[in-house]
User: What shape does this take?
Amino acid sequence: MNERSIAAALLGAVLPWASQAQDRREEPREVYRKPVEVTPEAQRAIERGLRFLSTRQERRGEYKGAYQDGIGRKVNHRYLAHQGYHVGVTGLVGMAFLSNGSTPGRGPYGEQVQGCVDFILRTIKPNGFATHDHSRMYSHAFATLFMAEVYGMAPSARVRKGLRRMVDLIVSSQNEQGGWRYMPAAKDSDLSITVCQVQALRAARNVGVRVPKETIDAAIRYVKRSYIRQSTSFQHVPGGFWYQVYENFPLRPSRTSFALTAAGVTALYGAGVYEGPEIRGGLRYLFDPRNRPAPSGMRQTFDYFYGHYYAIQAFFQAGDAGPVPYWSRWYPRIRDELVAGQFADGRWQDLVGPNYATAMACIILQIPYRYLPIFER
Assistant: This one.
């Protein structure tokens, strides 16, 4: 057996979803391209978005395969950034193409996916940190998640070697609080960065890369402690999740938001926690229209797409089996909102940039296609 056959056999034996995903790809593609939830209008929006992204990739030179956007950080309600070749955005664009069924070298966007893989592999430093032009742990995690999904769909020794180093960096960067922060050596943590690392680790573990159980257990404790169980003097609504818990507790609580609560619920799902007051309370918080970001924030903020990226995963995992049909009520709302917010040239836009926003919108809209293993129930 060659390397690809051995890896595929191993994954199929150990992970039920691996063989199921392969079975789906062998069936007629059209069956899975048009689930009920994805309307013709949404299909056209996805196609326009992916075509836009396919034209934006760097074609030559040392940055071949990369995507540019704003590399920076938020300061209060602003996003301070400089344009650069973005490790995290490149990973997310690759995820958008994978979500449509393309894999490295195969499918309508196979060339672009391969370019994303090649660029990310070139950014991995000796310590395993995938970074370029001062990008931070957000980008490393999105890139790691992308590489894990690539390995799960098209195994190769080259990808696995890079993925293993990236995963080791995440594991070694977890601090005593159980979370992660902007840089590998940080002593403090926040939930928005922690969820990215947890998802990357989950995806890596799904494809057979070892992740220590104690790493996940510590992350679960951190996320659960971030949950707001009762009202506070700062009028935080129960069911939300704090941005930071250790740094301010018990003097004052940290801030909460739709995006942070979506991150909290999705982090728990990613860590293998599917029941509990944190899940139930977080879903109720997200489903409450008073907490949902306004559509106008799509173009005017830096966290609209980030919040909805995690919210759609939370509601997809929640499904319709419980007392509230979360999925069937939520997806049509965000689907139609995103379709209405697309520009004529196929892009979406926010303060981070058009490649980031378009990648996020396409990933959200394509969740029902179920091509990515990380989005399996």
Q: What stands out?
A: The chain has one domain: 3-375. The longest strand covers residues 68-75. The domain at 3-375 is CATH 1.50.10.20 (Glycosyltransferase).
